[in-house]
Specification:
With about 475 residues, the protein is mainly beta. The chain is built from two helices and 35 strands.
């Protein structure tokens, strides 16, 4: 009897030990998510903070965390519990061996698979089934009896499903939990494939109005219902070697969020951030647009600039061109913008009493509060320039004197002022000028040329080069 009892106890121990060894991991799906926060940089980088509620027993635990982005950067993963005695990971794994034709076929290399075809017979279609040994994939190489075929035609049938393949990427954590009951776990990781950029529309009247939207492109292969969205503008340093995305975009669908409230701006570190309150849905392969700014009564100035290069090595032919048209938005000190703007494309429209016309577009960089914004919108149609080299004299091997005449013609119904920007290199000095100019920097000399309506104006100058 004692021997039988001892045997039963031993069997009980074996059974218990077996149960522990074969205990399945606890699965934590998206249904347990309590908060999802995304910080999206405009350099195609996103930091995800995914919080989920879970009830855990004490002791050693294997925890499967499902529903992470397919473009996750595994070295960036960390997990933490809101409870100091809660779950603490000692080991973590990223299972990215996802279910697809190649990964599935890889499991059957060396095994028997079936190919089926339908052949046209006199009485209709007949299904032909062949069995062979899969030797390799990409393309498939199959041994049918004594023959080996490459990429045989037909529909492949497999004898069973490979259970170890996942339909979505999964994080697996091994660790210990000292606090039983409900707790909140937060997993933080970086992901590629989500980026954003800004687009602006500037409308010019007596004063200017500016509207701006941000476009978020989600190419991560995952959907996100975001509770806290933070868009960060700035050049954050990243190490090279970010892995390529695991899915390519086949179709882009456009959605828009028409929230009338502007985002809240903040400045984490040395960057500017824009926080969007409320839930934002970022669906995979979608472009989602969010309102960034809408403001009126902005001071601006339109200007004309003609930039040319003065040559010091020889004769230069006459040049005909038109000055570039620039629009400058005043900084906050001049009744202008009082908010920082992230880099983006800006489209400019001009409105009068009868119509509105598109006059050009450009790109602006990250702009801090108070900084003026220069926008190049194209070239003037009714203002033209004729630039002629009037003289060239060389003095020895390393000195020359060059003269120019610039004639500006204005066919507009109002006078204009053109900034004639002469680009000069080396050691130079202006020796004569028909009107006083200004040295802007070491290689730019600027004349402000007033040109009357339906008329013309000209200037002349000479410069001496030494090199």
């Amino acid at each position: 009897m004692k021997h039988l009892l001892a045997r039963i106890l031993m069997l009980g121990i074996v059974v218990v030990a077996t149960d522990i060894a074969t205990a399945s991991p606890l699965k934590l799906g998206v249904e347990g998510r309590t908060r999802l926060a995304l910080t999206v940089f405009n350099s195609n980088l996103t930091v995800v903070r995914d919080q989920r509620a879970v009830v855990l027993p004490t002791g050693e635990i294997d925890l499967e965390f499902h529903g992470v982005a397919r473009t996750i950067l595994p070295p960036s993963v960390s997990i933490s519990s809101a409870d100091s005695r809660g779950f603490s990971a000692k080991q973590q794994n990223y299972r990215f061996d996802l279910l697809n034709p190649n990964s599935l076929l890889e499991r059957f290399v060396g095994s028997k698979i079936s190919y089926s075809n339908f052949l046209i017979q006199e009485k209709g279609y007949e299904k032909i089934l062949r069995e062979g040994i899969l030797l390799s994939i990409n393309p498939e190489i199959v041994k049918f009896g004594d023959a080996i075929e490459i990429a045989p035609a037909g529909t492949i049938s497999l004898p069973y499903t490979a259970d170890e393949l996942n339909t979505s990427p999964t994080l697996v954590f091994k660790g210990e939990n000292q606090q039983s009951g409900k707790q909140n776990l937060t997993v933080r990781y970086h992901a590629a494939g989500i980026g954003w950029e800004a687009d602006y529309a500037l409308t010019l009247e007596k004063e200017a109005s500016l509207s701006g939207w941000v476009t978020i492109r989600n190419q991560s292969g995952s959907d996100f219902a975001v509770d806290e969205l933070l868009l960060v503008a700035g050049d954050v340093n990243q190490n090279p070697g970010v892995p390529k995305m695991m899915e390519e975009v086949q179709l882009m669908r456009a959605t828009a969020s028409f929230d009338s409230d502007s985002p809240l701006a903040s400045a984490p570190g040395d960057y500017h951030a824009y926080r969007f309150p409320g839930e934002v849905k970022l669906l995979k392969n979608d472009m989602t647009q969010l309102k960034l700014i809408s403001t009126d009564n902005i001071g601006y100035e339109k200007s004309y600039r003609l930039a040319s290069v003065a040559q010091r090595y020889g004769n230069q032919p006459a040049q005909k061109s038109s000055p570039a048209v620039w629009v400058t938005i005043a900084g906050s000190r001049g009744s202008g913008l009082k908010k920082p703007l992230p880099a983006g494309n800006i489209r400019v429209y001009e409105r009068d009493k009868q119509s509105e016309i598109f006059i050009g577009e450009s790109r602006i960089g990250h702009t801090s509060t108070g900084q003026e914004i220069d926008i190049s919108v194209g070239r003037a149609f009714d203002v033209s320039a004729n630039r002629t080299q009037t003289s060239f004299r060389r003095f020895g091997e390393r000195e020359a004197e060059v003269g120019y005449r610039i004639k500006m013609t204005n066919d507009k119904s109002e006078p204009v002022v053109v900034s004639v920007e002469e680009q000069l290199t080396g050691d130079w000095a202006i020796i004569s000028e028909s009107q006083k100019g200004t040295k802007r920097d070491s290689m730019t000399y600027v004349f402000e040329l007033k040109v009357p309506s339906q008329g013309s104006a000209e200037l002349e100058y000479s410069v001496r080069f030494r090199w």
